[in-house]
Structures are given as structure tokens and as C-alpha cells.
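Work Package 3 (structural annotation) set out to generate three-dimensional models for the target panel prioritized at the project kickoff. During this period the team completed the workflow that converts sequence records into C-alpha cells, so that structures can be stored uniformly alongside our sequence database. As a representative example, we reproduce one entry of 314 residues exactly as it appears in the project archive.
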Amino acid sequence: MFTGVTRWLFSVMLVAIVMSRSLVHAQSTADLQESSNVTYHHSVSEVRLFFFATDEHNRSVSDLQKNDFAVVDDDVVIRDFRSFSRADLINLDVILLMDSSESVLPRLPQEVADIQQLISQWPWRSGDKVSVMSFSGMQTRLVCSEDCGASFTAERIYSSEGGATPLFDALKNAAKILHARARPDVWRVIILFSDGDDTISATSFQEALGTVLASEAQVYAVDSGVSVRPSNGTAILQKIAADSGGRYLRTSDGAVNVFKSVVDDLHSARVVTYALPAADTDFHSIRILPTHDLRLQFRCRSGYFNRATSAVTY
């Protein structure tokens, strides 16, 4: 009886997604298609999707099987996966992106200490890359590139502190760097330390978010704001994290908890690959649904770009 009800509910959910696909896709495409000048030329024949599975108590599911879920790629239901594995078996390309502008100066020493702890205690492997970038004033600065485990120094951050906050420019630049050196066997991650407020970027929010989606990087947004009430900056960080398949965290949770959340997440992630479905759209929306146990919850990026598109700009 339970199996029949479960299958019926799953079928209803899939039908609802197919029926609402046109409206949702039209809105997503419209949001991403503002201020288009220079385009990505990006083509894929196979989709590689990193995702997380949790139970109803938000605990990681350790025994997930590939028949426990289906991917809904636009209006196509995918159950036939080319591969299914744990993501911690592949290498990482991580950019730690930190706000060093005027608005976070009182909390900057703690942010620097958190990043130093993250770098020193991370269980890096020989093929992993870690870079640090800071942003303030009119610039985004590469503090150290790919080998920050050995070359990171806080002095380079303190030497360029203060000024306005070019958050969206910085996020776009970080995503472009990861996109430029992308490899199919490397997981791209941005860990963003910021209060979410942007005061001077030439890049719009939707343009920055579109660049992140095109790079297929997942963003862990660590909110350094001090307000106890949700703010516009909080909403921006939550949106970036959710659409990229990452997670929203707060520095007030403590550096140890932030570090543990990110590391645990990366160790519990799965990755599937499947053939690119035929579609006339440049942007494919993605959702993951349970097939048997409806208590399962899934988190992944909101979609990916297929062909050359005017939706994402440099």
C-alpha cells in the first residue's frame, strides 16, 4: 500500500513539474538575460551534477542508491545515469573569496583568522587547489593562487582593506577563474565571506549569478553581517548559495561550526553524470526528486547552460 501511494505521489509531482516548466523556465531565463554584451561559448554532451541528500532531520544519507532518486532536467525525467559516485573521490578547486571593504573592517581580523584555520586544517589532497581572493574599493585581488596552503599571508589582505564593496564584480571574477581552468574531474567551489552588501560593482546581481551557474561552481556563502534581522545582503547570499547548490552559513555560528559544515558537506556529496537531453533552450533547470522514500531531500545547483548563450556576460 505504501509503495503504491509513494509511486502515485511521485507521478503527481513529476506531472506538476512538467506543466509548470514553461512558466518557471521563462522567468529564470528572463532573470538571467539582463545586460548581455559578451557571451560564454559553452557546450556539453554530458551533464555532471554534484548534489547532497539528507533525511527529514537534515542528516546526510550515507546509503543512498542511484534508484532512490530521479533528476528532472527541464521537463525530462532522468533515471538512467552513466555514473554515480561519492564526490569526495575527486579533487577540489577552491577559491576563498573574502570581503575586506569598509563595512566589514571591525570583523576583518576574525575573517582572516577563520580563513587561516580553514586553510591549515582542511584535509587537502595532493591534487587539490586552493586560492584566496579579497575585494574592496574598486578591485578584486588575487592574494595567492592554487597553492595557498603554503603561500597564504594575511598581510596582503590587510594592505588593501577599506573602501567600497564590489561583491558582484568579485564573485564574477572568481567564477571566471574557475571556469577558465575547469576540468571534468575537478569539483569547483567558492567559499564567500561577506555581509552580502554591494555598493559599487559594474556587474549586476543576475549577471554575477549567471556567471557562477555557467562555471558550475558551488558557493558556500558565509554571512559576516551583524544584524539579527534578515537583510537585503542576507537574501542575496542565500540566493547565491541556493541557486549554485551550496549552503548559506553565518560567522556567528563560530569558525569551527562553519568549517565543519563545509567539510562535512563536501565529504557527503554525490555526483552523477547523464547524457544531455535534447532541448531548444540554452539554460536547463534542474531538480532532484525521491523515487521511493519521500522523506529524502536533495540540494543541487538550479541549472546549467548548454550552448552559446547571451544570458551570461563577461
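The two ends are 54 Å apart (CA to CA).
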